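Good morning C.,

I know you're traveling, so I'll keep this short. The sequence:
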Amino acid sequence: MVQTELPLEETEVKGKRKRGRPGRPPSAAKKPRKSPGDKGRLEAGARGASRGRANGHPQQNGEGDPVTLFEVVKLGKSAMQSVVDDWIESYKQDRDIALLDLINFFIQCSGCRGTVRIEMFRNMQNAEIIRKMTEEFDEDSGDYPLTMPGPQWKKFRSNFCEFIGVLIRQCQYSIIYDEYMMDTVISLLTGLSDSQVRAFRHTSTLAAMKLMTALVNVALNLSIHQDNTQRQYEAERNKMIGKRANERLELLLQKRKELQENQDEIENMMNSIFKGIFVHRYRDAIAEIRAVCIEEIGVWMKMYSDAFLNDSYLKYVGWTLHDRQGEVRLKCLKALQSLYTNRELFPKLELFTNRFKDRIVSMTLDKEYDVAVEAIRLVTLILHGSEEALSNEDCENVYHLVYSAHRPVAVAAGEFLHKKLFSRHDPQAEEALAKRRGRNSPNGNLIRMLVLFFLESELHEHAAYLVDSLWESSQELLKDWECMTELLLEEPVQGEEAMSDRQESALIELMVCTIRQAAEAHPPVGRGTGKRVLTAKERKTQIDDRNKLTEHFIIALPMLLSKYSADAEKVANLLQIPQYFDLEIYSTGRMEKHLDALLKQIKFVVEKHVESDVLEACSKTYSILCSEEYTIQNRVDIAHSQLIDEFVDRFNHSVEDLLQEGEEADDDDIYNVLSTLKRLTSFHNAHDLTKWDLFSNCYRLLRTGIEHGAMPEQIVVQALQCSHYSILWQLVKITEGSPSKYYNDYGDIIKETLSKTRQIDKIQCAKTLILSLQQLFNELVQEQGPNLDRTSAHVSGIKELARRFALTFGLDQIKTREAVATLHKDGIEFAFKYQNQKGQDYPPPNLAFLEVLSEFSSKLLRQDKKTVHSYLEKFLTEQMMERREDVWLPLISYRNSLVTGGEDDRMSVNSGSSSSKASSVRNKKGRPPLHKKRVEDESLEGSWLNRNENIHTPGTLQAPQLTSTVLRENTRQMGEQIQEHESEQGSEQDFLHNPQMQISWLGQQKLEDLNRKDRTGMNYMKGRTGVRHAVRGLMEDDAEPIFEDVMMSSRGQLEDMNEEFEDTMVIDLPPSRNRRERAELRPDFFDSAAIIEDDSGFGMPMF
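The tokens, ready to paste straight into the viewer:
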């Protein structure tokens, strides 16, 4: 074969890229190539060491620099192209040693400790080498580089894939055609992909798929070269005979032949990988392996669509849409999205769309939200490419998802809805039509369609969800408030239908929801996890939108209220709008006359309606407009007072009339009292009306009803409610006027209550104390925000209260041991309850609470501090432990409070007040010997560990007895020692060994530590039981059977499927020893449960 000699640096084929032609099967007359198996052995002896290797062993220089390919790629410090260029130079010098480096690279990337030596490479077949490497695996760990956690190993995966791509790119002009390197690599990867060891299968499959992707790119470049050469040849041949250059024609013919031979070589390599690895591994039992295969076949179909975008390859993606693992289904959808994005490819996807459209539409309801979102996006792309591809039923299945509580699903469905119903197909024509009709906006018809969609969905209480779903895709439409008010206020022009009353109500409801979304800039309640911090751009958009809606509705709202003042539902919705205003605009924009118009309309509404929703909306609007921070407060307050004066006067007269009439009162008298009382009660809820003394007349009504029993029930209810509000407002005044008098009057009662609760249940008392501190902390955060000033008086006040609470535990740490530990546990959980929305580099919002919690650290026993510190570390990441900024000082301070206390980790558990009985006994008896004291300490610590105590309330249910032999021995020893020192322990002895108590939280922590030590010891004693056990030790812990097919198909259906494989490209490689031996390794690693439902595609031809 004639090879094109080009420099290594040349990596791209010049000229315009295109998809090229489908590869044709290799010519029958072509000289047969040597098989990868024949190249799998070395025919020459060792020729010395290269690249830091000696007899196949990796070596390092004196400075410890990485010298193996695996180490270089793992560190990723060198540019990948220079690494590959170094390997190519090594290959040119000694290709056997260089290939040995490459083989060991794949072995080590799989996590194998073994190294392939030259004698093994020379004398063993690939199957034997792989079997030997299997024995070198560490059976105690199932992790390998591709599955190890941490940023270093994530980077390794990308470096690994990049290395393979650069290797083929740099070798594409010469080395890959030498019938040696590629045959050896493909043969090795094929053998590894058949291994039962997951690490080998996963790593080799990823390598093979990336190798295939690189080869597809080479094939595409060759196709472009062939097309260019053919055009040059035809152009030269069509010249006149006198101007035709025969030598150039011969060169072009020779080049075309050479390119065709190279194309055939590449096709053979791709066929070997596809049929030898892909068709087996896309059905692997491991989801990650299946996902790798599907992801890469999508890349091939997009990159070289003329060769791969056909039914022979698309069927694999279609079948895998039924995979039981969401990760694999997600890869299928994303692979298809990349294809449907290109509208030029739709003709080639037509048959696939018809076959699998129903499955794709059904995946919009997938139990995995990520899969459902991508399925909706794929359906949107199909709709964008061809509206006829989806039926009305298909579209309706997606429509209702705009009401989903999961926001990403709803937003994706909103984009579909926008594409289908609310996108303007001909903007210029629609704008011209709107101008002819005298409309300012061309969105009138689209808004009408939105109203109709909302009404037909029959989910009227979910208008906010519909608006939120469409917010990202249809903002221009949803923020067209001028068009909405135009439709509501103006009469329909010629060619337009008048909106019905139901449609007007729906439009007002939707309009109010759009105003709320624009002003608050966050999803409605039930969508999302809470308010997130807005970016600078989002904040600017929010301010602009709020100014825009305020300027518009300051003028439009009084007119809307005037038109719909008689409709309670519409008015109640419209009166929600002022709460989203920027009220400063009334003053800065000189719009006080519009404020007067609004107040006038609100007064009319109050006089017309007695419905509670309307009256509460009016009361709330007055409350917002009366805010003291705005200059309009005086104007609004005057109007409000005048309104209340009028209704109070009317109420007083009507009450007098009613009481005078007595039993002869008619319905008009009752209605007058009831209607005015309803209005005043609604206002009294949000406004302090005590100066009008409504309580007196309400009391008269209630007393009359009690004495005579003739008062209507509705009046009684309203009078009670109004009296209730009057009392509450009076209490507010009293509380605000003398906040400190209660401590002097009730301080002793509070102290006594604390003492009694501590006697009843120490642990519940401790939990109550920490809960009260948490509530104070939450209130402070709500007032000042998450960034608390730790030096402020408020924070110092909470810390001072915590210090006083700590003093209530006294000096006897044994009696309060469990209570204090439980308090610390609850405090730690509260501090780390929420994560910072900005990321893990920022402290949790409640982290400052640890500074309050540190006030209780002095009440912990020394050994308990260790336990609490260990519990704290469960919530910490490595980054948290290394941070030293000011915002992390509470954590640093709290950790220091748990690790300080002296050199000796032991502490006498008899520590207490100097006047305690135990101390008196010890003083009388004298100091015990040192060794006896140590035994006493250990026994009591173990006794506390094993005692049964409920961390909540001493209950009636008995906890199961502990069965650990270690604990039983300790319990027995502890019992003997405690009996020996019974006279020294006093009442603590009974508390420590109360048989009615259940195991404590501290005991659970100690048990976990002991169990971990036991498991570590048992694992350490395990010996290797042979190579077979070592292999099984690394297998996936899946519960499903291993040697079954993931496609859930019968034997006959599998045969049908295998027949369908024959319409793919044919491998032009003769059978080799290595390929024959592959069948002797292990059966395929298939799993019958890996792909779910709908196996209809396997019993009949798909296309």
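Safe travels,
E.
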